[in-house]
C-alpha cells in the first residue's frame, strides 16, 4: 500500500533537488515573536476541509496562540479580495495567511499581495509545487470525486457522462460557485477533460458545454453542495475534492449511507497552496503557522483529513506515515489516471470557466 502511494506521488510531482534555505530567525526567536503577537487570522478554512479543525486546534495547543477564523466558506478569489480590501487594516478582518488553488498563488505574487517565506522543510516540497522565491508553496492535493446519497440514488454514477442520465434529475451539485471557488472551477474542468477525451486545451470550454447540457436536462442543482444538503436530499450528488467527500461521508456516519466515487475519466488532481499576506498584521504568527503546517505533525494532520500532503514522499521514505492512516484512504489504483494540470493550463481554464459560466450555463450557484 505504501509503495503504491509513493509511486503515485512521485509520478505526479517530481521530487525537488536540494535548494539552499536559511531561516531568518531561529525557531525559538520565531516562537517568542509569534506569541508576543498572540493571534493568527486565517480565512476560508472549514473545519471539515482537510482536517483543518484538528490542525487549528493542534497549533493553538502547541503554541498558545489564538486563531481568528474568518469566513470559513469563502473561495480562493474571496481570500485574495480580503487581502486587497484590508491592505491598511491591522484589525481582525485582515487575513494573515491564505490557502488557495494553485493558479491563485502566482496571480497574488504578481499583484504584490503576498510575501516570501521558506519553512524549515522547504527542500522536501517538490519544485513543481512551489515558487522558487518562496512566495507560495503547495500544501496538499486531492482529486475530483462524486459524493452520492445512496438512499436517493439507486444507481451510483461511475463517470462524468453518467450524470447526464434522466435518473439524476435535480440531483447534481458543485461544491461552490465556478466564478470564485477553485473547487467548483476544477469540477467543471474535470468534466470538460472527460468530455474532450483528455484534451486539456479544450477542457474549459467543454466543461462549460457539459454543465450547460446538465442544466438544460434539469439535472444540475444551482446550490453549493455540502454534507448537510446531501443529507437533506437537496443535492444527492456532489462534485467535490475527494478529501472533502470522504470527510463528509464520515460526518454523515451512515445517515444517509454515502459513496465516494473517483470517476473513470477526467481524474483531475488539484494542488492548493499556502501564502502569507504582504500586509499580515501578525507576520511572525503567520510564519510559525507555516512551520507547523509543513512539519511532520502538520502534514500528518492533513493526511488524517484525507488530503495528500505535499511532503508525502519524504514522510513515506522516512517511515513516518502510520499504517492505519494509509488503510483509510482509497486504493492507489483509483488515482492512477490522475492528471496534474500545469499552472498555465489551470490559469487558462480558470479564465474561461469563471468568465463564461453565467453566459454559457445560465445557472448561478447559490451559497
From TrEMBL:
An annotated GO cellular component: outer membrane-bounded periplasmic space
Signal sequence region: 1-24
Gene Ontology molecular function, alphabetical: thiamine binding; thiamine pyrophosphate binding
One GO biological process term: thiamine transport
Keywords in alphabetical order: Signal
The name this protein goes by in its record: Putative spermidine/putrescine transport system substrate-binding protein
Amino acid at each position: 500500500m505504501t509503495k503504491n502511494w509513493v509511486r503515485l506521488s512521485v509520478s505526479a510531482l517530481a521530487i525537488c533537488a536540494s535548494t539552499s534555505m536559511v531561516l531568518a530567525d531561529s525557531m525559538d526567536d520565531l516562537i517568542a515573536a509569534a506569541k508576543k503577537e498572540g493571534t493568527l487570522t486565517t480565512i476560508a478554512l472549514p473545519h471539515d476541509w482537510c482536517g483543518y479543525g484538528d490542525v487549528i486546534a493542534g497549533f493553538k495547543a502547541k503554541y498558545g496562540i489564538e486563531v481568528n477564523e474568518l469566513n470559513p466558506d469563502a473561495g480562493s478569489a474571496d481570500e485574495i479580495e480580503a487581502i486587497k480590501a484590508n491592505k491598511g487594516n491591522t484589525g481582525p478582518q485582515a487575513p494573515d495567511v491564505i490557502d488557495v488553488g494553485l493558479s491563485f498563488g502566482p496571480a497574488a505574487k504578481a499583484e504584490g499581495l503576498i510575501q516570501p517565506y521558506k519553512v524549515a522543510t522547504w527542500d522536501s516540497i517538490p519544485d513543481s509545487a512551489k515558487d522558487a522565491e518562496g512566495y507560495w508553496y503547495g500544501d496538499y492535493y486531492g482529486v475530483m470525486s462524486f459524493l452520492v446519497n445512496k438512499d436517493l440514488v439507486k444507481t451510483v454514477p461511475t463517470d462524468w457522462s453518467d450524470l447526464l442520465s434522466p435518473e439524476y434529475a435535480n440531483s447534481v451539485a458543485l461544491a461552490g460557485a465556478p466564478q470564485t471557488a477553485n473547487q467548483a472551477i476544477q469540477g467543471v474542468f474535470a468534466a470538460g477533460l472527460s468530455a474532450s477525451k483528455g484534451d486539456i486545451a479544450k477542457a474549459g470550454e467543454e466543461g462549460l458545454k457539459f454543465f450547460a447540457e446538465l442544466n438544460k436536462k434539469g439535472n444540475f442543482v444551482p446550490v453549493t453542495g455540502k454534507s448537510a444538503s446531501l443529507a437533506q436530499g437537496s443535492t444527492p450528488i456532489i462534485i467535490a475534492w475527494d478529501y472533502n467527500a470522504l470527510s463528509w461521508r464520515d460526518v454523515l456516519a451512515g445517515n444517509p449511507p454515502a459513496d465516494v466515487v473517483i470517476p473513470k475519466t477526467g481524474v483531475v488532481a488539484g494542488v492548493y497552496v499556502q501564502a502569507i499576506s504582504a500586509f499580515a498584521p501578525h507576520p511572525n504568527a503567520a510564519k510559525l503557522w507555516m512551520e507547523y503546517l509543513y512539519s511532520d505533525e502538520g502534514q500528518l494532520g492533513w493526511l488524517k483529513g484525507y488530503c495528500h500532503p505535499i511532503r508525502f514522499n519524504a514522510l513515506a521514505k522516512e517511515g513516518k506515515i502510520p499504517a492505519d492512516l494509509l488503510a483509510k484512504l482509497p486504493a492507489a489504483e483509483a488515482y492512477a489516471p490522475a492528471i496534474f494540470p500545469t499552472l498555465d493550463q489551470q490559469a487558462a481554464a480558470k479564465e474561461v470557466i469563471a468568465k463564461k459560466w453565467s453566459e454559457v450555463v445560465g445557472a448561478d450557484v447559490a451559497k
